[in-house]
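User: Sequence recovery, please. Input:
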């Protein structure tokens, strides 16, 4: 069965950095679109960054210049490097995959990893 497993979350002070990773498995066809979403307590889930199979990336305006999404298709991994973190970055972060073009609309999500910025 298809699966995405996130790791790398934790607690960090404002201005610090974290690197999230996501290992995806179980697909029998190439995954075109991968993304990171986040959901803060009491708020709706929002897309943080997308990357397609060619490496084209898009970002939420508020994270541009601070976050970098990347993928390793050979290792089936997705990463999110987060620098200069702010308290409003506190949220559960999820990776998502979709066979079709970006953005992820009806994709598969992982269980999430918590990021807390104080």
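Assistant: Recovered sequence (118 residues):
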């Amino acid at each position: 069965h298809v699966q995405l497993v996130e790791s790398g979350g934790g607690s960090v002070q404002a201005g610090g950095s974290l690197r999230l990773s996501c290992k995806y498995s179980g697909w029998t066809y190439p995954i075109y679109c991968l993304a990171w979403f986040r959901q803060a307590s009491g708020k709706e889930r929002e897309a943080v960054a997308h990357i397609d199979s060619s490496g084209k990336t898009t970002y939420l305006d508020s994270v541009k210049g601070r976050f970098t999404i990347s993928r390793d298709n050979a290792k089936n991994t997705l990463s999110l490097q987060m620098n200069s973190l702010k308290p409003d970055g506190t949220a559960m972060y999820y990776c998502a995959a979709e066979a079709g073009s970006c953005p992820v609309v009806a994709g598969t999500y992982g269980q999430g990893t918590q990021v807390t910025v104080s």
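DSSP finds no helices and eleven strands in the chain.
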